[in-house]
Each structure stands twice: as C-alpha cells, then as structure tokens.
Amino acid sequence: MNFIEKSKKYIIHIITRDEEIRRTHFLVFGFIGIPLMIGFGLESTFVTKNYPLSLFIGPILLSLIISIFLQDSMKNPLPLFRINMFLLEVLFLFMLTTGGVEGSMIHWMYIYPLSNYFLMGKNEGMYWNFVFILLALFFMVNPLQFPFVYPYAPVTILRFLIAFLCVSLVTLWFEYYRQSYRDRLVKRSEELQKALAEVKTLRGYLPVCASCRKVREEDGSWINLEVYVEHHSDAEISHGLCNECAEKLYPSLMEEMEEGSESKS
Length: 265
Hints:
With 265 residues, the protein is mainly alpha-helical. Helix content is 72%, strand content 2%.
C-alpha cells in the first residue's frame, strides 16, 4: 500500500471516528441510564406511588433499550439520538414541574446538557439546551399559575439557572475542543495527502545489470532503466546526448558545430 492510499484511509478513519465516539457515548449513557430508569421506575411505582412518573419512565426505558440494539445496524444513528433526547427532555420537564421532595427533582436537570453535547454535537446541542432552559424557566416561574407546578423560590430559580449554564458552558468547551482538534487532524491529513500526491520518490536498492543496465523488478523480470523510472515515479524520460557520447558517435557534426560557434564569436 502506497502513501497516498494510506493517507486516504487515515482521513476516512478520522471522519468515521467521530461517529464511533458518539455511538460509544450513547452506549455509556444507556448502560448508566437503564439501571437508573429501572430503579427510579420501581421506586416511583411501589414506594412513592407516583404513577404518572412511572408512565413517563416506561417509554423512555423501552426506547433506550431498543436504540442500543438498533444503533449498530444504522448507518446514521442521529435520528435515534434525537428521539431519546426528546423523550428525556419531556421526562425532565415533568420532573421539574412535580418538584419531588422539597424540589429535589431539580438536581437531575444537570444531566441534560451533558447528554446533549456528547450525543448531538456542539451546534445541535446548543439548540436543544436553549429550548430546554427556556421551557424549564417557564415552568419554574409559572406565569400562568398552573396548579400542578411545584412552587420554586426565586433564589432557587436563580441558582439553578447559574449552575445549569455553568455545566452547559463547561460541556460545550470540551465538545468544541474535541471537534476543533478533530478538524485540525483532518486538515493536516488532507495537506499530507496533497503533498504525497505531488511527490513520488524511489527508495531502497535497485538491482541493475552491470552489462546492459536493465533493472530487475520484484517478480524477477528485467526492464529498461527508463521504463522502471517511469513506472515507479512521476518522472518522464526524455532522451539526449551528453558531450562525450556526441563526440564519440558524431565527431564530424560536433566539429562543425564548434567551428560555427567560434566564427560567431
């Protein structure tokens, strides 16, 4: 395999590597989230008797399990990630409105920006987080005075907003740095590919016949030196005569040329 083919494969590997990282992130979130969902669902069903919360957890748990098995067979798993992020957003907003014990449900909200940026990427993750924080603030402030919304104190809302933005910014920075590092790798690989496409050199030892000056190929055949150079490099052979060979082969012509040059001078 030559250098150009290796460089092309390396660029493809870098591009597909980004997709592999997101698949791995989803598996990690799934393996962590599934036990949490099961435990949380059992607790809300049999301990706190919070049946509406159990109804929200059930579809999300089912979707997460199905998505883990389907993502490897899909060329683009992004639609699966979007479905799960939407269901997770609905669950978190429901938990936010119910509040839990003294508003303790609010602490689960910080998982959302982590999941968004690591699964959806920097640009789309910002959109999802923006929509979520607007909806969360709407329900926490509760301007329409919905009776089912937990009454959060203004200082709690302010602290939540500051903490949520801090988590979002830190996660955004890590995702931005990862993507920018990947883009630099792709750019350098493309520059390397371009350079390798323009430069093709001969390396190693050339077995040359001491008599006829032919070169031995890898299969054992012997070919002319000019043909070998053209096959193994980007050079093109043009023929001419050096001064010594010209004087040896065409002495009279060389004398005439020398006399003509002397008369001109």
